[in-house]
Write a structure and sequence with these properties.
The complex is a heterodimer of chains A (506) and B (310). Chain A is of the alpha/beta class. Chain A contains 16 helices and 23 strands. In chain A, strands 13, 16, 19, 20, 21, 22 and 23 form a 7-stranded mixed beta sheet that branches. In chain A, strands 6-7-8-3-9-10 form a 6-stranded mixed beta sheet, with helices on both faces. Chain A is globular. With 310 residues, chain B is an all-alpha fold. Chain B has one domain: Orthogonal Bundle (ABC transporter involved in vitamin B12 uptake, BtuC). Helix content of chain B is 69%, strand content 0%. Chain B is globular and about 65 Å long. The chains are: A alpha/beta (506), B mainly alpha (310). The interface between A and B is medium-sized, with 25 and 24 residues.
Chain lengths: 506, 310
């Protein structure tokens, strides 16, 4: 039998207070598409960082082509034929495509030659790209192409892909898979990291499942059902949120002809957005990141002021009101970025509870703060939403992503909103916490609030939303009932494949 | 008032000399900022350069050794800043301000015995043939070597930043240190190097003040030139050739107001001496008013501390 391409033997890495990887072992064969499966915090990222030379293991060894492999830096890893596409893109917005590619290569050819090669490779693999464009102007799907092409130009033996599909439309995912299958047919092994089970079942030849830093199973994903894989990954049975039957009431929030330029130079302007949400209804807004989600949230929360008539709460125009005035009226928001936008990282949970709750919970009087009441409010959030923390005096930064997210969402829900807008409510949150957040949103809707969920996770939207609309380049599609909506239709609403084509087979 | 007493040839020639210190300091700061480091200690590094250069030149009798000493002095002071901000992760704004205050005080201490001394002189180059061209000759080709060195430095920096891999990596570090780190670039080391370069350039600028432009040593003689250099980097939207333009514009106004004073214009002297600073403020306001694409040139990671999260 031939040697495996990469063999990982008993690799261990510990950080203060947590063992990220505990004697992890598995092999990757040449040309194989190998899935690394696990929840957030299972240790997937630490493991690939070790393979890519960003982190050194405490114990254990790795072998590449049966020879010891100890990369001291990403340069060493790249020289050994290992390339990586990052989850959070490692791209530079103010530089152009060719410069970004050059930065990820060991010895890039002169710029003119490089641009030529980028065109060549991008056409061979059906990933069209203009080398002279600024990366900041590209869509998420196009940015990923930049990363993939950067890797392909180095003819890697092993391509590591960290959650590559989280930013793509379903059509773009299909095209990516065509590209990956072509690569694997050419003999490039792919280490594919994801927690999306259906994808892994379609694409991968082998899977290693990680839980809390340990390998808990290895299997051929094609022979397992998604449910079996999920149970291996989570280690327990998952409870799916149930949508109670409910009546929808009057229109709670109406947005009409909202057009506004973005506050951020690389942002997307909102164009002619109109929609209504009724009491008791959940409106899901999908779309690939960077199509105006942040700006839409800012326009709804009052961070961005628009003409009064464009946003109405019931019959009252609120477009010209700031965030505090809108909170007083009952429009509450939980933005995507937990640390720095939804919560102040270095302030305690009590202080963070005060920041958005002061008005509706009457936590201040005549300019003086009522700390006892505020602490009580924070404790209620912690208790009702099962936030795991030693107490409300701890800084927001000290909470894990999932716990902080529960706190942030709980803080808004407990203020009894008329309209709640959440952006990416379960991003980077483990499956159990995500399920409880979704359930809380559904319960709030059952109680008669109108809810807008902006998310890039289509499965989540299908699970919680009554109607679905997609943002594409700042425009919102006509909302449609989620029942009976197919993945293809959703993909088209999201803007289809953004000019991609299926790989030309060379 | 007699405006005809202003000689345009002398005015323009003086402009090039007056601009050189801020040009040197600004081009150094530009490189540091392109790497994502906001060093507000330019004023402090300049004055340290001024006294180090002056002291070395006086002690050795060789002005060129003075410049080398100034560059070393400025770089040494900037390395304190580098250590504090890059390794101890202190706040760049506060550390930079502290550096300026420290530089002003420390230079006064070193300089106590150097007041009232004349430094060794540097001869103008008088480039043969070119210097004899009427008008253009005295304006462009009869200066000392540092004037040309400063312009050459701008050209080299411009070329390095846009055309070479080293420059690309430097810009990448200033754009997103996390992405640069993920690709395996040594963010801290690159930033320390950029800070040291900025310090050396500021030191040279300071020495030019004490050795050529004034030429003698007085406490606090930089008189805000370092702050102007910082403003010019923003004015230039982080582009090297625009730094040259900005420095000449500022130098021009400085020289012009001196000439107007001499010509006896009936405006209080105070207004004239504040004019370069007023114009700097005005230009910055106009530049910042357009928050669109112009601000894109600003390095995205400017002023942010980098700590390699594992």
């Amino acid at each position: 039998m031939t040697h495996p391409l990469l063999s990982i033997q008993g690799v261990t890495k510990a950080y203060p207070g947590v063992v990220a990887n505990d004697t992890v072992s598995f092999d990757i064969q040449p040309g194989e598409v190998h899935a690394l499966l696990g929840e957030n915090g299972a240790g997937k990222s630490t493991l690939v960082k070790m393979i890519y030379g960003l982190v050194k293991p405490d114990a254990g060894r790795m072998e590449l082509h049966a020879a010891p492999y100890e990369p001291a830096s990403p340069h060493a890893a790249r020289n050994s034929g290992i390339a990586m596409v990052f989850q959070h893109f490692s791209l530079f917005e103010a530089l152009n495509v060719a410069e970004n590619v050059a930065l990820g290569m060991e010895d890039p050819p002169p710029m003119a030659t490089l641009a030529e090669r980028i065109r060549e490779v991008s056409e061979t693999y059906g990933l069209p790209l203009d080398p002279a464009r600024l990366v900041g102007d590209l869509s998420a799907g196009e940015r990923q192409r930049v990363e993939i092409i950067r890797c392909l130009l180095q003819d890697p033996n092993l391509l590591i892909m960290d959650e590559p599909t989280s930013v793509l439309t379903p059509q773009e995912v299909d095209i990516l898979f065509e590209t990956l299958k072509k690569l694997s047919a050419e003999g490039t092994a792919i280490l594919y990291i994801s927690h999306k089970l259906e994808e892994i079942r379609t694409l991968c030849d082998a899977a290693t499942v990680l839980r809390l830093g340990k390998v808990v199973g290895a299997c051929n994903p094609r022979e397992k059902s998604a449910r079996e894989l999920a149970e291996m990954m989570v280690g327990q049975l998952l409870h799916t949120p149930d949508k109670g039957a409910k009546e929808t009431g009057d229109v709670a929030l109406a947005v009409k002809d909202l057009s506004v330029a973005s506050q951020n130079p690389f942002g997307t302007a909102l164009k002619d957005i109109s929609f209504e949400v009724r009491r008791g209804e959940v409106l899901g807004i999908g779309g690939v990141a960077g199509n105006g989600q942040d700006d839409l949230l800012a326009a709804l929360s009052g961070e961005m002021i628009t003409p009064a008539e464009t946003v109405r709460l019931g019959h009252q125009p609120v477009g010209a009101l700031g965030p505090n005035d809108r909170r007083r009226l009952g429009i509450l928001c939980a933005p995507e970025e937990r640390l720095g936008h939804a919560a102040a990282p270095d302030m305690s949970l009590t202080e963070n509870a005060l920041l958005t709750g002061a008005i509706r919970e009457s936590l201040s009087k005549n300019g003086f703060l009522d700390w006892a009441r505020t602490r009580g409010f924070a404790e209620t959030i912690i208790e009702k939403f099962d936030v795991r923390t030693p107490g409300p005096t701890h800084a927001a930064r000290s909470l894990s992503g999932g716990n902080l997210q529960k706190f942030v969402i709980g803080r808004e829900i407990l203020q009894r909103p008329e309209v709640l807008v959440v952006n990416q409510p379960t991003w980077g949150v483990d499956a159990a916490a995500a399920a409880s957040i979704r359930q809380a949103l559904l319960d709030l809707a059952t109680d008669g609030a109108a809810i807008i969920v902006i998310s890039q996770d289509l499965d989540e939207l299908m699970e919680v939303a009554d109607r679905f609309a997609a943002l594409n380049e700042g425009r919102l599609s006509e909302p449609r009932p989620t029942q009976g909506l197919t993945i293809d239709e959703i993909g088209l609403m999201m803007g289809g494949a953004h000019g991609m084509e299926v790989a030309h087979v060379a | 008032m007699d405006l005809s007493s202003i000689n345009p040839v002398l005015l323009l020639a003086a402009l090039m000399v007056a601009s050189t210190p801020i040009l040197l300091a600004a081009i150094g700061e530009l490189v540091a900022e392109k790497a994502g480091v906001l060093n507000l200690g330019v004023e402090g590094m300049m004055i340290i350069g001024a006294i180090c250069g002056f002291a070395v030149a006086v002690e050795t009798g060789n002005p060129y050794l003075g410049y080398i000493g100034a560059a070393i002095g400025g770089a040494a002071l900037s390395l304190i800043f580098a250590f504090l901000t890059q390794y101890l992760l202190s706040n760049q704004v506060a550390t930079g301000l502290a550096l300026t205050l420290f530089g002003l005080g420390f230079s006064a201490l070193i300089g106590q015995s150097y007041s009232g001394i004349k430094p060794p002189q540097i001869n103008d180059l008088n480039i043969p043939l070119l210097a004899d061209i009427p008008f253009v000759g005295p304006v462009l080709f009869q200066h000392d070597i540092m004037v040309y060195f400063a312009i050459l430095l701008v050209a080299v920096v411009a070329y390095m930043l846009t055309r070479t891999r080293a420059g690309l990596i430097l810009r990448a570090v200033g754009e997103s240190h996390d992405a640069a780190h993920a690709l395996g670039y040594k963010v801290v080391l690159i930033r320390v190097a950029a800070i040291a370069f900025g310090g050396a350039c500021a030191g040279l600028g300071g020495a030019y003040l004490s050795l050529v432009r004034v030429p003698q040593w007085t406490e606090g003689m930089t008189a805000g030139a370092g702050w102007i250099a910082l403003a010019i980097v923003v004015f230039a939207s982080w582009k090297p050739w625009r730094v040259l333009l900005g420095a000449y514009l500022f130098g021009g106004i400085t020289v012009l107001q001196l000439n107007l004073q001499a010509a006896g214009v009936k405006i209080p002297v105070e207004y004239l001496s504040m004019s370069p600073y007023l114009i700097t403020i005005l230009v910055l306001v106009i530049m910042s008013a357009d928050r669109g694409r112009a601000s894109l040139n600003a390095p995205a990671a400017l002023g942010k501390s980098f700590h390699a999260a594992s």
